[in-house]
Fold this protein.
Amino acid sequence: MRSQIWREAGSLDSKGYFDEVAAQWDGMREAFFSDAVRQKAISVAEVQPGRIAADIGAGSGFITEGLVRTGVKVIAVDQSEEMLSEMHRRFSDFPSVECRLGRAEALPIEDEAVDYVFANMYLHHVDSPPQAIQEMVRVLKPGGKLVISDLDEHSCEFLRTEQHDRWLGFQRGDVERWLAEAGLQGVATDGLGEDCCARSECGEEFAAVSIFVAHGERTGPASGFEAGVDTPGRS
Ligand SMILES: C[S@@+](CC[C@H](N)C(=O)[O-])C[C@H]1O[C@@H](n2cnc3c(N)ncnc32)[C@H](O)[C@@H]1O
């Protein structure tokens, strides 16, 4: 079944691809990287219980699960109805988790609504990473923190053709610049000390790509944010 999805990935758009793999995503994710990724991402933000977080490109809830354990409320956003169905199944007993269907360009969250935004393995799937970052910063309260965990730049083309990656990772300097241009302070990136590993279904290729975590804090108005512009989620 998984092989078939990989063979067909080229004929699907990103949403179609993630709808197809949603039921198997937890198993796929475990093969790609370990739970240490979310521990590191959450520790970087120094999450405090009782606060509110957004998990963007939440998938089936890998980051959300870790956040719930720390006692924060979570708004989980994804473009894929099937991924959100998995989330509903997993968190139906957790009133602190709210799932919302939405896309990178217009997140269904009001301005300055959350204390933390997390995005794990999401940025390399969006059309415009700088625009997606601006949109994530828009929903952060002043003093709120953005934490992005993603792949360093690599050359494994099969991740594009078989797994719908839009970008072959990033240079950390570019991600730091996008965070700073979006208005964040104290921007930094660290290595996560782990590789994301994947084997091509169509050949012998194997990817072992290092993972970074980029973070910054919103201290004032987000740059690129124009008050009064009417987009979904804005009040
Ligand atoms: C590689 S998965 C990561 C899922 C989850 N964060 C995890 O770590 O397991 C990427 C997720 O981002 C979502 N996604 C990709 N592009 C998106 C977009 N433009 N807008 C909203 N969600 C998007 C996909 O539907 C998918 O669930």
Remarks:
- The first helix runs from residue 2 to 8.
- Residues 1-8, 225-235 have pLDDT under 50 and may be disordered.
- The beta strands are 52-56, 73-78, 97-101, 114-120, 140-151, 184-199, 206-218.
- The longest strand covers residues 184-199.
